[in-house]
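Entry for the shared binder. Reason: the reviewer on the internal report wants the predicted structure included alongside the sequence.
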Amino acid sequence: MEDQNAHKNAAGKDRGDYKGMGLPAEKQPKSGQQCDEYPFRTTLEGAASKDWDFSVRAVDRSDNAGAGSRLKLYVLHERILRWDAGLADPQRSNDAYWVNVRYSIR
């Protein structure tokens, strides 16, 4: 989990592997905000992977925590399983799912 946070935060702070490509200074998280990412960090394509592109944005800390809690409940309720690369044919054997994300700009 720590490596995942470091990877996401480097993009949010425009440093490390993301120097010159991360959030510019005026869009970096301010007090009361966090850096949120899409696709979700918990997905195979999310910010936890250095092999995929992802986007980041500064959002209100409580909004980010609430969205994360709702996503966790959704995954648990719908019994969505972790990706298992050890299966004989992981692309076919693992379940795929889509999440429709709606947002509004305040």
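Summary line for the report: The radius of gyration is 15 Å.
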